[in-house]
Description:
- The protein is mostly helical.
- It contains nine helices and five strands, in the order H-H-H-H-H-H-H-E-E-H-H-E-E-E.
- The chain folds into two domains: 4-44, no CATH class; 74-195.
- The chain has helices at 4-19, 36-39, 53-56, 60-65, 73-86, 91-107, 114-118, 129-133, 141-155; strands at 121-122, 125-126, 168-171, 183-188, 191-195.
- A three-stranded antiparallel beta sheet has the order 3-5-4, with helices on one face.
Amino acid sequence: xxxxxxxxxxxxxxxxxxxxxxxxxxxxxxxxxxxxxxxxxxxxxxxxxxxxxxxxxxxxxxxxxxxxxxxxxxxxxxxxxxxxxxxxxxxxxxxxxxxxxxxxxxxxxxxxxxxxxxxxxxxxxxxxxxxxxxxxxxxxxxxxxxxxxxxxxxxxxxxxxxxxxxxxxxxxxxxxxxxxxxxxxxxxxxxxxxxxxxxxx
Length: 201
């Protein structure tokens, strides 16, 4: 029995695995006891985004065409926040709320995780009202699915094009005190968006 056909299949796989191994300065390959999955480069999720996303943002058609969304606790927290805070909004309105949460996470002014941001309490209440309301179950299947798809895309690197760095938002029927001090960046649907000044000015 000839092994040549089998070698043609195995050799490329072996070369791919070897090329993913880190090499020390002296030319030696990394410890082979390290699991292969830990030696492979992290996937580039942004490569899956449509080219137009970088300038025009996400579209309903593209989101719907993606595999069923899933993820870790960060994805779950962002999905729930979008569902409970913005499921009645347009696609742009929901993406804008996702931008606020991610902008907060990256700002250095708020917790450094999505879950930390959406669950933050202070001033006698919650930063995101649904946390204090105790709503936990996402009963509207389609709305929950869309929220999960938006959350997945935004966590995977979709550009933030809608709110100009906003860190806050509120509905049109309220006017919190901070809205007079922060820069109003845009209005989308029922929400007005604002950017908190950096402590450095």
